[in-house]
Design brief:
The protein is about 55% helix and about 20% strand. The longest helix is centred in the last third of the chain and has 54 residues.
Amino acid sequence: MDILKQNLKLKLILIFTLTVVSLYFIFSKPVKLGLDLQGGMSITLQVDIDHVIKRQYEILASDIEKKLSDKKIDVLSIKESKEKGITIVLLDPTQTNNAINILRKEFPQLEIIADNSGIIAKFKEWELKRIKSQTIKQAIETLRNRIDEFGTLNPNIARKGEDRILVELPGVVDPERAKSIIGRTAQLEIKEVIDTAYSKEELLKKYPDGLPEGTEILESVEKEIDGQKIKEWFLVKKTPIISGEMLKDARVGMDNRNKPAVNFELTSEGAEKFGEATAKMIGKRLAIVLDNKVMSAPVVRSRISSAGQITGDFTTQEATDLAIVLRAGALPAPVYILEERIIGPTLGKESIEKTVKAGIFALALVGLFMIYRYAISGFISVMALLLNGLFLWAAMVILDITLTLPGIAGIILNIGMAVDANVIIFERIKEELRKGITLRVAVEEGFKRAWDAIFDAQITTLIAAFVLFQFGTGPLKGFAATLSIGTIISIFTALFITKVFIDLILGGKKQLKYAF
């Protein structure tokens, strides 16, 4: 008997400790509220997958030309497009079969065929799917990094269909700034300047026979000089000296006019590459290009290695936001806002008030039913149910789970499921009592017999919740999270806490009036 009392004491200490710890977390940190409760912004973005595919073909065209050149096969022309893939015309058509064999071996992701126009290389279907999937994943990760630095708490970012992304920003107070940070591609490139002019037409006149191979024309951002707004046009080399992938850090600083600018630092690889290039370009101009626009074009005065500066008549906030998107990395493709919705906090407040009332009403009805049906043990189940709710709320805080309107529905559903486990236990105990055995033995046998039924029921619920969490979007994830955590806690409260409380009330009694 002393051992039983000692075990009971330890179990009560465990329950007391869990209760105190739960209360500590609940009062030290508020639970995060979702978009539907807190208000905020919802944006649906479309990712320009075609841009990525076209860019991949451009890179491959260069690789293919180099590979064939290494094998002593001369290429007359090579063109790429998203629709047709890469079209290769050889200087010597008799080498077509040899070239096809080489390309099939070196580029297994491409389907290589020959027709009247030359050799056609196109992505295989599995490679296209991989590119699309990888682009969306990379875009989601980049957006998450940006939003985390932006300071918005608990964003929901999820894939929506084949080429769309849903971004939900609870509590956002500056929608325009949020859209600017989210929608900016932020592709940083530093390119060598070949020539400049103050109009595109003037620049094109210098090259009536066509632009030099491997070059392109880019416009600059508009700048104010001596009270006049001026835009410059640059002929630059297409291939950048370095790009944003070699960026290590970006911070707000001041330029030589004491205006906000963005200071950037390169990785060791980028610094080495940049240093080698600028050492050969002293006296020439470098174009610092952001999203295909020249932000500034300083003259190289000496070898530059690990650091640089982006100027552009920024405000402090513009420089801050640019530093954020550069640190987070460039989006793999341009994104376009298809739909945006602003949800006010009033709707969320009303939702919380109504669902809290519904939860209290449900708890009260369930509690009254259990006390009426099972007397003392029914009251015990209500106490266990209150602890269930306390532990669930603390778990949400500890695990940093967002509370959504469907999540509250999951909590209310959990009330019924938690009581259901107690009902199974109590009915098993009553079945044992009808056999004429003592209350103590009936309790032990009832809990043993109820275990399998409770476990099977809760496991199936957990499987369903896992599927919802894995494949659902924000609101469904909220429901699945509260349901799954509540289910696990319900098993604990029904089979452990309820048993401890019953043992405490029973003591050494063999019978107890109104026990069940």
